[in-house]
Amino acid sequence: MALMFASVISARTASAQGLRDRFSIIGTSNDADTGTASVERRDQVLASLPMKRLTPDAQQRIMAIASSPTIFRQLPTQAISCDREMFLFIARNPEVLVGMWDLMGVTQVQTQRVAPYQLDASDGSGTHCRVDLVYGDPQLHIYVADGYYDGKLVPKSIDGRGVFVFRSSYATSASGETTVTGTLDCFVQLDSLGADLIARTLSGFIGRSADNNFIETARFVSQISEASRRNPQSMIDLANRLPQVPRETQQQFVEVIKHVNRRQHELVQASRQPRTATAATADHR
């Protein structure tokens, strides 16, 4: 259940791996071994949140969950090669990833955009959640999820909630390539005492699964950016066929793909510019 709360921003390992195998271009990432779950880190995350910029309702929802989570974990920091605009678009429109998984037949996850910053999701196995993007800027996105599990593993429905704090930073190399470094802090709270005890007992296993999902998803996002740079027409064709994605979002995705490719073309052209007269003269002295 905890993993499903994060499903809109962290693909299941099988789904992400299946898509990676179908893409010929593999992105790079800097994989830390495991995430962390320290109380000190949890307190640091809470203290750093821009609470004054959030609505009173968002503040209340966040603190009700994050102040007493069943599970807290910071997933391994990932550094990937990715266009900044593409990264932000996917972070704010995760149904695009789910649509790709669906199109390639590697997921049962279903999503529906119900409001500009609100998404419903289900995994086909009894987990259902509604995810709200309550805050977003280029360096920070905060998601709050409410949901339940009524699958075969439990005799009755279990309610739960989650807060997911996604931080990102950007660095541009001399060649113009952008590296995005991201961290995801997860707070998950379950209502059932039995589920709470099981989750705490299995927190290490759950955490490692979430770590792997985040790593694989980061790699795949890098590949989307790279494919947009090198093969934009194929990506545009894919964008126009994505299931579970509103037509308006498909069109926005197409524009982002075009922008990524145009920036790549400009970088290539700049690298081919003739040397300056001064440099040429210096070579012949």
Report on the structure:
The structure is a single chain. By secondary structure, the chain is α+β, with helices and mostly antiparallel strands. The chain has a domain at 2-17 and 46-223: START domain (Alpha-D-Glucose-1,6-Bisphosphate, Chain A, domain 4, 2-Layer Sandwich), CATH 3.30.530.20. Helices cover 46% and strands 24% of the residues. It contains eleven helices and eight strands. Strands 1, 2, 3, 4, 5, 6, 7 and 8 form an eight-stranded antiparallel sheet that branches. Strand 7 and strand 8 form a beta hairpin.
What can be said about this structure in brief?
With 285 residues, this protein is of the alpha+beta class.
Structural class: alpha+beta
The topology string of helices and strands comes to: HHHHEEHHEEEEEEHHHHH
Largest sheet: 8 strands, antiparallel
What's the assembly state of these chains? single chain
Query: What is the helix fraction of residues, given as a range?
Result: 40-55%
CATH architecture of the domain at 2-17 and 46-223: 2-Layer Sandwich
Fraction of residues in β-strands: 15-25%
Radius of gyration: 21 Å
The total count of helices amounts to 11
End-to-end separation in angstroms reads 70 Å
Mean pLDDT: 84
The unreliable regions are 1-22, 24-33, 280-285
- Principal-axes shape call: globular
CATH third-tier fold name of the domain at 2-17 and 46-223: Alpha-D-Glucose-1,6-Bisphosphate, Chain A, domain 4
Task: Find the count of extended strands (DSSP E, 2+ residues).
Answer: 8
- By CATH's scheme, which homologous superfamily of the domain at 2-17 and 46-223 applies? START domain
Report the CATH C-level class of the domain at 2-17 and 46-223. Alpha Beta
